[in-house]
Amino acid sequence: MSGGAVMKLQAVCKYFPITRGLLRVKVGEVRAVDGVSLELRRGATLGVVGESGSGKTTLAKVAVRIYRPTSGRVWLGGQEIGALPVSQLLALRRRIQMVYQDPTSSLNPRHSLRRILEEPLVVHRLGGRRERERRVAEILERVELPADFRFRHPSHLSGGQRQRVAIARALILEPEVVVLDEPTSALDVSVQAKILALLRRLQQRTQAGYLFITHNLAVVSGMATHIVVMYLGQAVEYAPTAELFGRPRHPYTRALLSAIPVLTAEERGLIPEYRRLDGEIPSSACIPRGCRFHPRCPEAHACCSREVPPEVAVGPDHTVRCWLYAGGGDDR
Ligand SMILES: Nc1ncnc2c1ncn2[C@@H]1O[C@H](COP(=O)(O)OP(=O)(O)O)[C@@H](O)[C@H]1O
Ligand SMILES: [Mg+2]
Fold first, then answer.
1. 30-62: per-residue pLDDT in tens?
2. What lines the ligand 1 site, CB under 6 Å?
3. What residue segments make up the domains of the chain, in order of their start?
4. pTM
5. Atom 14 of ligand 1: nearest residue by CA position
6. From atom 18 of ligand 1, which residue's Cα is the shortest distance away?
7. Is 278 exposed, middle or buried (0-12, 13-18, 19+ CB in 10 A)?
8. Which tens digit of pLDDT belongs to each residue from 189-217?
9. Superfamily classification of domain 39-64+88-95+177-325
10. Residue 113 above 80 pLDDT?
11. What is the phi/psi pair of residue 149, to 5°?
12. How far apart are the first and last CA of the chain?
């Protein structure tokens, strides 16, 4: 792994079988994640952006080893974790944690916050009662919740407060990597901004790598150093954040950018005008031939429906999977 990387995915695929009948005969497969490679650095945030159904949650679950990849490799630090046996997964959970979109379903409503936050320490046998109490108090303070909240239950908290608890629970084990799957999508815009700011402050302190997943490019713009754009299970563009916003190459990235709501003419001026997208994302069970994006692409040519585009480097740290940049396709 190159210097500074805490996590690396190489050509990761996750396919789900489609079965029919009592005998569960396999009749096809859903290619939810189909050959994704990425690298996350210590203390940095990598944004993963794509529409609903593009495979983001599946990718997150492969990254934290909830799912075993169908093929491809996953490393955490120098250790390959993709093929770890179940017996070694508990030790892994200390090092990589996930925060889900909906804090209501990820927190046990019958438990107090103290019990919820203490649980990871108990499971991993960290510290005695006193020490655990100290760490619960400390983490509550870090996520900026009052100390006496430890006696409350999740149902007595607002959505934003619940997400703070979910973040506290993920961070109490001091993981090297935190995978955040749409962590603010269920929250009001004003609460969203506060949670994003909190996540940034916590990262400065812990130097954890964040894999930040969202369907909303605007949300990651202030968080991520680099962004991966996903479409139907594949990474179609990867670039540093400023470069992706300033010089987007893939027609899909351009369409996502023009869909960002803007408030003022000034903001509009910062985002180049591109054509908006028509149609829905197809199903991962029925992936179009050639370039997966061609049925919706405003710039598609004949070759795009025939052949899969290669990944092309268009800058030092910028890659795109599109025939427009491959110099291929004589009939474009
Ligand atoms: N457990 C599963 N079994 C079968 N198909 C699944 C499963 N999980 C996700 N999928 C399918 O994989 C594709 C990607 O889903 P998902 O990873 O949830 O995308 P996203 O988080 O970007 O919305 C979708 O077509 C979805 O229906
Ligand atoms: Mg999802």
1. 999 999 999 999 999 999 999 999 999 999 999
2. 16, 30, 32, 50, 52-58, 283-284
3. 39-64+88-95+177-325, 103-174
4. 0.92
5. 55
6. 57
7. exposed
8. 889 999 999 999 999 999 999 999 999 99
9. P-loop containing nucleotide triphosphate hydrolases (3.40.50.300)
10. yes
11. -65, -15
12. 38
